[in-house]
Amino acid sequence: MRLILLGAPGAGKGTQANFIKEKYNIPQISTGDMLRAAIKAGTELGLAAKKVMDAGGLVSDDIMIGLVKDRLKDQDTENGYLFDGFPRTIAQADAMKEAGINVDYVLEFDVPDELIVERMSGRRSHPASGRVYHTKFNPPKVDNVDDITGEPLVQRDDDLEETVKKRLGVYHNQTEVLLGYYNQWAQSGLPGAPQYRKISGVGPVDEVRERAFAALSQ
Ligand code: AP5
Ligand code: ZN
């Protein structure tokens, strides 16, 4: 299974990626998680990315495309791969296409902007695994502790309300155009074209999971 998850910040891409990657035994290539790991490691890339991310902007296409290509070289992709947060611009999608990094499915999570800020303000993450929780909607078994490792959870620096609003604006201006891009490609039926699936990302996490699994099995 090779797929791309599309959707606004907070639509639930990371949450659902964790279920999908387990079901299909595939690596989750989350460019946001990769950048956060670079920040934590204190690399030059991390330092530069942190400024952009905290401001709610996008890291440059050249950097992101290079990062993803390098990652794919090191990654076992025998069973496929899941992209979460990439591509995010037409330039990134074109670069993927040119490099022959094809996917079987593009899965879009549809969530209205009104729900996003509330989702982000309660988000808690376990950076090492990519597991995501919400204080109210998807709480860990013990407050602020990862269910599996028992390690502490963290709040993301870009989840401040102001930054979330900026990220939503950037999504509408630069990423939403990819919905049409992939829809059209899917309809063309050309070789390499993906299947396009759109599901509602609203409702309990396990209901969205069932919708995602059903969409990927048709
Ligand atoms: P990234 O980490 O990709 O952030 P994002 O796309 O903004 O998406 P999020 O991770 O915020 O949301 P999500 O859809 O994964 O939702 P989640 O499952 O966590 O990118 C961060 C930054 O890195 C970017 O702003 C940019 O600067 C940079 N970057 C990354 N990739 C880039 C690229 N390709 N090019 C350029 N720059 C790049 O869920 C959110 C919350 O909601 C959680 O608390 C969760 O528990 C809760 N929740 C989930 N599902 C439900 C549900 N059904 N009901 C209720 N609550 C739910
Ligand atoms: Zn995410």
Automatic annotation (TrEMBL):
One GO BP: AMP salvage
Entry keyword Cell cycle: no
Entry domain remark: Consists of three domains, a large central CORE domain and two small peripheral domains, NMPbind and LID, which undergo movements during catalysis. The LID domain closes over the site of phosphoryl transfer upon ATP binding. Assembling and dissambling the active center during each catalytic cycle provides an effective means to prevent ATP hydrolysis.
Pathway: Purine metabolism; AMP biosynthesis via salvage pathway; AMP from ADP: step 1/1
Residue ranges, annotated region (NMP): 30-59
Keyword Methyltransferase applies: no
Residues annotated to bind ATP: G10, A11, G12, K13, G14, T15, R123, V132, Y133, G203
Reactions catalysed: AMP + ATP = 2 ADP
HAMAP family xrefs: Adenylate_kinase_Adk (MF_00235)
Region (LID): 122-159
Pfam families xrefs: ADK, ADK_lid
UniProt-listed Enzyme Commission number(s): 2.7.4.3
Molecular function terms from GO: AMP kinase activity; ATP binding
Broad class of enzyme this protein falls into: transferase
Function: Catalyzes the reversible transfer of the terminal phosphate group between ATP and AMP. Plays an important role in cellular energy homeostasis and in adenine nucleotide metabolism.
GO CC terms in record: cytoplasm
Assembly behavior: Monomer.
Organism: Massilia polaris
Recorded superkingdom: Bacteria
Subcellular location: Cytoplasm
Domain (Adenylate kinase active site lid) ranges: 123-158
Protein name as it appears in the record: Adenylate kinase
Family recorded in the similarity comment: Belongs to the adenylate kinase family.
Binding site for AMP: T31, R36, G57, L58, V59, G85, F86, P87, R88, Q92, R156, R167
